[in-house]
Amino acid sequence: MTTTTSYGTWCNRVDPYSTSLEASVEDALGDFAGDYDTDGLVAAYRRAINEALPPSVSLCGDEFIGPWKAEHGEFDDYPHDEYGGLDIRAIIGGVDLWKLAEQFVLTPEDEASEPVADPPPFASASAWADALDAEMAKTGKTAGDLISEGYADGSLLGVSLNPEADDERGVIVSTNGWVVYYDEQAGYWYSR
Description:
alpha+beta; 3-stranded antiparallel sheet; 37% helix
């Protein structure tokens, strides 16, 4: 098993004026945010960012997670900062938010036909994480089993999952933006 570590947050690695990818997208769209499917755009932007990052590094919630010690040459084809570390800001700078945004412009027909989602059965991502712990204890299933079953069914314990976020890395993303991850060492689910 590879030991992972935080490479920093969205705020300290990408946008010092924003606390999350979602907030950065909203800020970029400004007064025109209502003209876009922002949930779809955020999901597509997150997917494009994760595709641009090295395979062993990912944006999980608002935090970049990667190997504690990269394999020799693993990041050679990616930009580096002045300290020799992976330059996440430069990598993300190569992802064209506005090109993605063109795909998510709402039309009057889109706005009229948007379904109203059922509210999740939990009050918070933290409560969902606690329920996942209880489900594992009750059923004896592993975190991997829960993740696989959840993405196969489209929901986990009544919370709809974002199918585009299935990366099999112990992280689950709901359609309402909740992110939970399983810490194998601690043996618990946590929310971000």
